[in-house]
Write a structure and sequence with these properties.
Number of helices: 3
Distance between the termini: 20 Å
Structural class: alpha+beta
Strand order of the largest sheet: 1-2-3-4
Strand content: 35-45%
Shape: elongated
Radius of gyration: 16 Å
Order of helices and strands: HHHEEEE
Largest sheet: 4 strands, antiparallel
Number of domains: 1
Amino acid sequence: MKKALTALLLALSLTACATEAKYDAGMQSLVGYPAEELVFAVGAPQNMVRIDERTQIMTYHAYKGESAWIGHSFAFSVPIQCVTNFKVVDGIIVDYSFAGNGCTAL
């Protein structure tokens, strides 16, 4: 299970021909997984908020910069980011949400 989850998350991190719909489908496939498996596969979340004894929100941030070139001159850098939240109840991922211009997957 851990290898399959790791492979899925690695594929989601690639950006060539990537779409938000594919990212959404990948996140949906994690619903029902133990949150522990997510942590083992991608590491600890950047933030975790306990809602009550049974419920917590785990937040992952992904940031990078994309440089744009015009001719032979550097033009600007565009920040690419994705913030993904997982709602965890009794240790199981039950829901998710994401926002940002970098929430894409193959």
